[in-house]
Specification:
By secondary structure, this protein is an all-alpha fold. It is built from 5 helices and no strands.
């Protein structure tokens, strides 16, 4: 199956996700543990996107496959965290993290991680005569 998202599109969605994660605590009046988790997740996504080897990065240091594995790991841990951190009874906070899990999963599963045109290109040396 052809995956519709390029790594650059994935990165743009990551940056939008960061904005949602860091504004949600105030908009949803989350309890402190949920708010701290949202800020932490937002920071982690921002850091990974900023340093992944794709076009919207600040510095291309993290390989695409490492980014994919980090997203998969976060996606597996994130839905359990409201229960582990004790705020699962707060419906708004809990449902935000479940929805965030779904968004991260879709973004990861629909990304063409093998898209070679997005990654770092070999440098060509200019030789002067």
């Amino acid at each position: 199956m052809q995956k519709p998202l390029t790594p650059a599109m994935h990165g743009a969605i990551d940056y939008a996700t960061v904005m949602g994660a860091v504004t949600a605590p105030r908009l949803l009046n989350m309890p402190p543990k949920a708010a701290n988790l949202a800020y932490g997740v937002g920071s982690a996504i921002l850091g990974m996107a900023a340093f992944t080897d794709f076009k919207p990065a600040i510095k291309r240091a993290v390989p695409l496959r490492a980014h994919e594995m980090a997203d998969a790991t976060l996606g597996m841990a994130l839905p359990a965290l409201p229960w582990m951190l004790g705020f699962s009874r707060n419906k708004k906070a809990r449902n935000f993290f479940l929805m965030l899990t779904g968004m991260l999963a879709l973004n990861t599963l629909l990304t063409d991680w093998d898209n070679k045109s997005e990654g770092r290109q070999p440098r060509r040396r200019n030789r002067e005569s």
